[in-house]
User: Fold this.
Amino acid sequence: MAPPGEGFGKPKPVHLNGVLAYISKPWGLRPADRDKDIQSFDQIKEGMTFREIVSLLGPGVQDSLSGVGMIFWGCKDGRVLVTARPGGSIDEKTSYQIRLQGRDQRHKDVAELARTLIADIEVSGQEVKVALTKDSDQAKAREVVTYQVGGMFQWMGPSGFLPRVDFTIEKIEGNSVFCHYYYGALPEGLLHYSDSGSIILTPDGKGGVGQPATEAKLKEAGDGGR
Assistant:
């Protein structure tokens, strides 16, 4: 199997103001590029210049196929620093953020959001009727919307569309709705955290959602929730 990016051009070092600023290459940041040490990443603070970032972390990586111009630095612990290509001097303060994406790490937060967000959920065969407690892009608060497998209902907060949670229905078995979720947390300083995973929503018999359960919890209970 050909290596990623083969046939799309070779990596190209890019210098800005005499400094090796980033490597432009097909598909951008790869697992091997997530090699920056944790101590250096911990020194990133607000108000730095592009030159200071490069001095601390070394050259970044840009996806030569995207045409977007974003530059990335990957840390060994999963964090990724993202900034735009400088339009002027690299000694000017630049805008950037640190992203961290988890997998099945924020079930507690997602479960709490589900309990407070879902006003009513009703399962009928292979359809799910959902009403949210708040307005969304899809419906007004308390308005019932019917979804089938593959459908998605979501809510985004007023502050830069965060926090945000999406539930995509993957299957319906009995009274249980198996969903894939995406959760975007409110920023903590420079850190923008997101998480995705699996969760099962089950009506509580009172019009609400009850306690969302993970696949693992359902198996531990001997599939009693199905």
Remarks:
- The longest helix spans residues 107-117.
- The first strand starts at residue 12 and ends at 16.
- Confidence is low (pLDDT under 50) at residues 1-5.
